[in-house]
User: Fold this.
Amino acid sequence: MPLEYRIDHGRRLVLARGRGTLNGQEIFGYQREVWSRAEVGGYDEVVDMTHVEHLTVPSGKRLKELVELSAGMDLPGTPSKFAVVAPDELASDLARFYKIYRELDPRSTKQVNVFKSLAAALDSLGVESLRE
Assistant:
């Protein structure tokens, strides 16, 4: 699976890692599969794109649809953080557009930030290290 994830209930954190080729269908699938679970409502999130070799670029309309889906799944009144690790230019640019769209959606309760490294992303969430 190009987008693998694990849920760390102790840290209230969802960590997803992309691998290989990643497309919009897989991203939407991840969003629906993980964030429809009541037990992860309000958790922080990290999506690490470091090992994505090819990213299918979604249209602006499709990116807005993802934001609408994501913001609609946020737990109202419960702020959380979403860190995107995007070391290459394309992934970083897409993540920044996503961040802007999320900030414009009034239902969004996640603060989105984009980082070049997993260490910086984890640091922003107050997570010292991950056990594999």
Summary: The longest strand covers residues 44-55. The beta strands are 3-8, 13-22, 44-55, 80-85, 110-115.
